[in-house]
């Protein structure tokens, strides 16, 4: 049995492309035109069902060894490949469909649904009707025919596929299949038995809303895609699946809405995903670093979300989403700066409060960026800018404080950062201890001890609160880092320093792109009509156009007009 | 290449650290000055007094009573020049004097008579001491005023600012004059100005100790009184508060004030009205004999506050009669102001400026002897109209009502 046969049979499955992984992997290691090969070779597949259908990661397997005719030898080979791992289960069985032929069922415990295997494979095998008289011939031709009959008529697992090579057998086991070896046949059967314990769909922890859908993505990409499909019930919702990661072989799905997303954008996303060659993808954060436009910036050029509703809304506007198995966070691209201040809830609430909240969020971002710096600048360089009473009150508080305002501010900000990190990393049980220590240590004791001024505590506290307002943790983190730069430049040059850094920042932002979209769009460059859903949110019926990033000619999304 | 770029960047950033922090001035290194006093020594040197705020005494909860520390500290330096005197402060003050929040400058009479040109120069030229500082003159030593504590205020410098602000808004006798205003008026063609006077009244016992706040009344009080009249840059005399208010009406600077007036044939002014200035117009006209006549048209409107005369205020005829009587009162106030101004030979009315605007050619001839000869003899014609907008909640006076009820019995 040559590997070509395997390819042929695999090709009979809808949209399947067995062997291309190995093929393109060879191309990768050999020739230089890897991306072209991947693209043309269908590195990404339309996701049609079980884990088998996604192409294995490029460069994962470099060889293809055909299965031998002997069950014992095959089982032995697979076992050896797995290094006698304890979770590899092998069960010998017999079936009336193969009189006198030994069968073996292999699977990896934990990633398969064992009950399902019992019901749809083992039970069916054992109760399968005996073959007709002429099929009893125990030669290969007969066996192949019986195997096909088994696949088509006996095993009721969702998806079955003939497997002809050891490597393919290993892959299918790893992807959660149950492998049925037939003694005397060079073709095994892989039946989808994906299962095992998974976290159920729960509330999105990182992005809570008061009003709106309350379910979030889980670690299972199948569940996640299902959630999306449930929201967008359209055949235009395209899911392109691929496997990334030499070792982890993680399923990564590129999702977009055909005819709405620009083809160039989809092509670009495909190209960037195809270019990733990494040994493991644990979370979509891994992917983000490979596909983002610019690494050396504080600003995220991809948006991550735990919410299917937000993902669906972005897809409807012509964005693409990238989901990765094992990560409850989808990546959305392209994004502009303003997107990070929009919460999905903006669209579920009345437009007036939504607009107000957006302004608040942007204001809070600016505050979290500038406030300590402004305090430093005003108190050390521009005292004349304060009202007299404030100056006197601040100056009374600073009386006896041993450090310059800059040192004081840095000290407090760093203390806060440490506390915050401790709060995140600490086991839940000792969490409250943090708040007590934090409140007592920074809030009261330092002021009473005269180490820092009370005003500084207020500044740091308000800065901290402001930084929690951002609906995307990403952007708050950007402010978190830049805040220190602002503080330093304020301590060195006062307002001049702050303004200079602001200018540098604006220039930097104006130069950023996210998948070809300017980061400050639709403000710079100005896109007519997009103001309705950027800083403010106008009533839904007035937003007749999709954002400019949507495909040309498909921007109109509703009839529009006041109902 | 990249290494070179990084090095260039580093070199570009280095001077930042060196240049920066240069002007850094921590809050607790500042000696915040809330008021400045200007006196002269007998030898003619400037004697500057500073009211230094002590933040820690102020910021404690409650007023200065609580801490037992004086909220301000006053000290004095001397020098031939203004800033020269300021620079000597370093010899006795541990902190850098910070003038940006100085709100008040008080000029002692001796200094004011010597001339305030140097003071204006110092305030106009320097960025830290601003020309928006409010100026006052005092009959005695300026330092004495700075030493006083105001009962409601922690910082007496800021308290004086509130005092004049309230006076301008509510009392209507004085208006605030910043150093800039003073300079502007002194540079105007008539070269005169009036600066509100501040001084101590009440008992002789000064309120310069925190202990004074332990009593329910204070001895001496800081009080706005009189108007210091400046000609060129020197103090030439004083106007009373009453005369000052008359001038405020003439100049059209009055906002709101309470005017008392009497009943017909009564000596005491037992009635009062709260008047707002509506409009004042000064029209210089040439008399047939070649002299000048100043016609002042003033309009005021107000709410009656007290009324103890006869007459029914719901009758238009009685109301009209009352309006005329109030107008007469107002007119005499204004005349007092103009006369006092003429007596001093300083045009505080601003008539000269009006004349210059209307008759620029003629003004050239008049300018030189305006203050000394022409203005004191200037003929004025006042035309005052008062309208009573509201008479309050009652019509006739209570006295009238009592009389009526007696008559019924």
From TrEMBL, chain B:
Gene Ontology CC entries for this record: membrane
Compartment(s): Membrane
Span of domain Spore germination protein N-terminal: 23-197
Signal peptide: 1-18
GO biological process: spore germination
Major location category of this protein: membrane
InterPro entries: GerAC_N, Spore_GerAC-like, Spore_GerAC-like_C, Spore_GerAC_C_sf
UniProt keyword terms in alphabetical order: Germination, Lipoprotein, Membrane, Palmitate, Signal
Membrane topology qualifier: Lipid-anchor
Family in the record: Belongs to the GerABKC lipoprotein family.
NCBIfam families named in the record: spore_ger_x_C
Protein name in the entry: Spore germination protein GerKC
Protein source organism: Paenibacillus pasadenensis
């Amino acid at each position: 049995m040559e590997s070509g046969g395997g390819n042929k049979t695999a090709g009979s499955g809808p949209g399947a492309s067995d062997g291309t992984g190995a093929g393109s992997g060879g191309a990768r290691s050999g020739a230089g035109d890897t991306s072209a090969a991947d693209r043309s070779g269908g590195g990404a597949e339309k996701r049609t069902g079980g884990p088998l259908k996604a192409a294995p990661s490029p460069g994962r397997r470099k060889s293809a060894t055909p299965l031998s005719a002997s069950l014992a030898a095959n089982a032995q080979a697979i076992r050896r490949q797995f290094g006698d791992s304890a979770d590899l289960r092998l069960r010998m069985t017999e079936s009336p469909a193969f009189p006198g032929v030994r069968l073996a069922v292999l699977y990896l415990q934990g990633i398969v649904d064992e009950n399902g295997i019992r019901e749809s494979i083992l039970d069916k095998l054992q109760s399968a009707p005996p073959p007709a008289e002429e099929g009893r011939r125990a030669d290969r031709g007969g066996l192949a025919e019986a195997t096909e009959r088994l696949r088509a008529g006996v095993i009721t697992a969702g998806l079955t596929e003939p497997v002809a090579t050891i490597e393919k057998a290993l892959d299918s086991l790893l992807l959660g299949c149950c492998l049925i070896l037939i003694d005397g046949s060079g073709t095994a059967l892989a039946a989808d038995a994906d299962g095992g314990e998974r976290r159920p769909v729960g509330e999105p922890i990182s992005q809570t809303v008061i009003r709106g859908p309350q379910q979030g993505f889980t670690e299972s990409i199948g569940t996640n895609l299902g959630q999306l499909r449930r929201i967008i019930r359209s055949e235009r919702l395209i899911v392109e699946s691929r496997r990334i990661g030499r070792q982890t072989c993680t399923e990564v799905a590129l999702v977009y809405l055909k005819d709405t997303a620009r083809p160039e954008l989809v092509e670009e996303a495909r190209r960037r995903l195809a270019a990733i060659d990494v040994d493991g993808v644990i979370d979509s954060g891994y992917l983000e670093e490979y596909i983002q436009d610019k690494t050396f910036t504080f600003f995220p050029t991809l948006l991550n979300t735990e919410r299917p509703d937000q993902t669906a809304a972005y897809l409807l506007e012509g964005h693409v989403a990238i989901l990765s198995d094992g990560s409850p966070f989808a990546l959305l691209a392209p994004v502009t700066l303003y997107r990070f201040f929009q919460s999905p809830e903006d669209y579920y609430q009345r437009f007036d409060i939504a607009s107000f909240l957006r302004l608040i969020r942007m204001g809070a971002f600016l505050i979290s960026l500038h406030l300590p710096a402004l305090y430093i600048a005003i108190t050390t360089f521009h005292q004349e800018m304060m009202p007299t009473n404030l100056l006197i009150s601040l100056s009374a508080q600073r009386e006896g404080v041993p450090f310059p305002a800059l040192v004081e501010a840095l000290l407090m900000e760093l203390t806060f950062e440490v506390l915050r990190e401790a709060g995140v990393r600490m086991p839940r049980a000792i969490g409250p201890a943090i708040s007590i220590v934090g409140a007592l240590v920074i809030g009261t004791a330092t002021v009473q001890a005269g180490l820092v001024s009370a005003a500084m505590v207020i500044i740091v506290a308000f800065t901290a609160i402001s930084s929690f307002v951002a609906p995307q943790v990403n952007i708050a983190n950007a402010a978190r880092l830049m805040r220190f730069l602002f503080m330093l430049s304020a301590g060195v040059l006062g307002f001049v320093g702050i303004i200079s850094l602001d200018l540098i920042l604006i220039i930097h932002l104006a130069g950023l792109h996210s998948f070809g979209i300017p980061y400050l769009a639709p403000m710079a460059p100005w896109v007519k009509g997009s103001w309705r859903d950027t800083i403010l949110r106008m009533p839904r019926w007035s937003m007749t156009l999709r954002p400019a990033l949507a495909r040309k000619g498909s921007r109109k999304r509703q009839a529009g007009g006041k109902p | 290449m990249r290494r070179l770029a990084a090095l260039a960047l580093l070199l570009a950033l280095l001077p930042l650290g060196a240049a920066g922090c240069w002007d850094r001035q921590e809050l607790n290194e500042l000696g915040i000055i809330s008021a400045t006093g200007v006196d002269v020594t007998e030898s003619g040197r400037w004697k500057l007094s500073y009211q230094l705020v002590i933040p820690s005494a102020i910021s404690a909860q409650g007023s200065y009573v609580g801490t037992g520390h004086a909220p301000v500290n006053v000290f004095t330096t001397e020098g031939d020049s203004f800033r020269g005197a300021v620079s000597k402060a370093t010899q006795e003050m541990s902190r850098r004097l910070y003038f940006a929040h100085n709100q008040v400058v008080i000029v002692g009479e001796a200094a004011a008579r010597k001339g305030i040109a140097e003071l204006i120069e110092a305030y106009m030229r320097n960025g830290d001491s601003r020309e928006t500082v409010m100026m006052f003159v005092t009959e005695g030593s300026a330092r004495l005023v700075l030493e006083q504590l105001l009962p409601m205020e922690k910082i007496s410098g800021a308290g004086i600012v509130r005092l004049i602000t309230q006076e301008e808004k509510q009392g209507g006798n004085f208006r605030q004059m910043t150093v800039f205003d003073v300079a502007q008026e002194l540079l105007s063609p008539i070269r005169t100005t009036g600066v509100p006077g501040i001084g101590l009244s009440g008992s002789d016992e000064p309120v310069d100790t925190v202990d004074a706040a332990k009593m329910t009344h204070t001895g001496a009080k800081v009080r706005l009184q009189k108007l210091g009249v400046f000609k060129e840059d020197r103090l030439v005399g004083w106007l009373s508060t009453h005369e000052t208010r008359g001038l405020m009406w003439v100049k059209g600077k009055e906002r709101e004030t309470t005017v008392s007036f009497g009943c017909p044939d009564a000596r005491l002014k037992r009635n009062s009205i709260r008047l707002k200035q509506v409009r004042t117009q000064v029209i210089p006209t040439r008399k047939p004999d070649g002299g000048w006549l100043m016609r002042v048209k003033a309009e005021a409107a107000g709410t009656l506050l007290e009324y103890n005369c006869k007459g029914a205020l719901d009758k238009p005829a009685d109301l009209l009669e009352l309006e005329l009587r109030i107008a007469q009162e107002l007119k005499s106030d204004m005349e007092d102001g103009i006369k006092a101004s003429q007596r001093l030979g300083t045009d505080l009315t601003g008539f000269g400026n009006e004349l210059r605007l209307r008759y620029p050619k003629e003004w050239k001839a008049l300018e030189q002897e305006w203050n000394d000869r022409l203005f004191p003899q200037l003929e004025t014609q006042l035309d005052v109209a008062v309208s009573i907008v509201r008479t309050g909640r009652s019509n006739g006076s209570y006295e009238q009502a009592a009389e009526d009820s007696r008559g019924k019995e």
